[in-house]
């Protein structure tokens, strides 16, 4: 399985292409739809779905362009289903940049259940990692995890945004992510990749816990 990171938008959100054999998944296409399409064109694989770890604007800005171009479904959290059409909750309406437009995205085609999915050639589990936002989820594959804005290299997601909760986020990471094998790579929504072991040992939010 191949994981390709594409940095998108002004705040450099990480969109991931997860490729296996003839199929690929698009995860969190935050902006720059043409750039994502350009990267997909280089691959000999067909997009089968768009997956959203959560629905803040910097993770959803290119959803409709890609959905319409590839004719593929979008999967999102039922707890944030309305946020795709709500610029206040997806934060585009609260952004202080003068050039930020309200982002409104068509409803998700499917709402996640907390279970294992097989889409195309790829199988993964959806696990709840709320705390950055109430509906945040992570995607656990056979030998890596995509953590959205829950766990970062040396940090965690913000909890001062609507529905954020620090205690909930720390518990999410400890129960859903730190129970994964230490060697698992972690691919976050911003910044560089890390591993479960590295974050247990060095992340300041968990100092002395492991």
Notes on the protein architecture:
It is a single chain. The chain has 210 residues and is an alpha/beta fold. The chain has one domain: 4-Layer Sandwich (Metallo-beta-lactamase, Chain A), CATH 3.60.15. Helices cover 17% and strands 29% of the residues. It contains four helices and 14 strands. The strands form three sheets. A six-stranded mixed sheet has the order 1-2-3-4-5-6, with helices on one face. Strand 11 and strand 12 form a beta hairpin. It holds the Pfam family Lactamase_B.
CATH class: Alpha Beta
Low-confidence stretches: none
Number of helices: 4
Give me the CATH architecture, please.
Answer: 4-Layer Sandwich
Gross geometry: globular
Distance from N terminus to C terminus (CA atoms, Å) equals 30 Å
**Helix/strand/pairing class, anyone?**
alpha/beta
Oligomer: single chain
Helix content: 10-25%
Order of helices and strands: EEEHEHEEEEEEEEHEEH
Largest sheet geometry: 6 strands, mixed
Mean pLDDT: 96
Q: What is the CA-atom radius of gyration, in angstroms?
A: 16 Å
How many discrete structural domains? Answer: 1
In CATH terms, the superfamily is Ribonuclease Z/Hydroxyacylglutathione hydrolase-like
Strand content: 25-35%
In order across it, which strands form the biggest sheet? 1-2-3-4-5-6
Strands, total number: 14
CATH fold call: Metallo-beta-lactamase, Chain A
């Amino acid at each position: 399985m191949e994981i390709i990171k594409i940095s998108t938008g002004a705040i450099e959100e990480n969109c991931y292409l997860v490729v296996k054999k003839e199929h690929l998944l698009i995860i969190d296409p935050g902006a720059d739809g043409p750039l994502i399409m350009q990267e997909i064109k280089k691959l000999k694989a067909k997009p089968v779905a768009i997956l959203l770890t959560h629905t803040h604007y910097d993770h959803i800005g290119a959803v409709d362009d890609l959905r319409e171009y590839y004719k593929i479904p979008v999967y999102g959290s039922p707890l944030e289903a309305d946020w795709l059409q709500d610029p206040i909750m997806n934060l585009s309406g609260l952004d202080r940049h003068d050039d930020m437009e309200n982002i409104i995205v068509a409803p998700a085609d499917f709402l996640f259940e907390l279970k294992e999915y097989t889409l195309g050639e790829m199988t993964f589990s959806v696990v709840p990692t709320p705390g950055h936002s109430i509906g945040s989820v992570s995607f656990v594959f056979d030998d890596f995890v995509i953590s959205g804005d829950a766990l970062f290299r040396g940090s965690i997601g913000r909890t001062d945004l609507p529905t954020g909760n620090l205690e909930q986020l720390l518990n999410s990471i400890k129960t859903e992510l730190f129970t994964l094998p230490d060697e698992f790579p972690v691919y976050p929504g911003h910044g560089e990749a890390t591993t479960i072991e590295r974050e247990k040992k060095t992340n300041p939010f968990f100092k002395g816990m492991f």
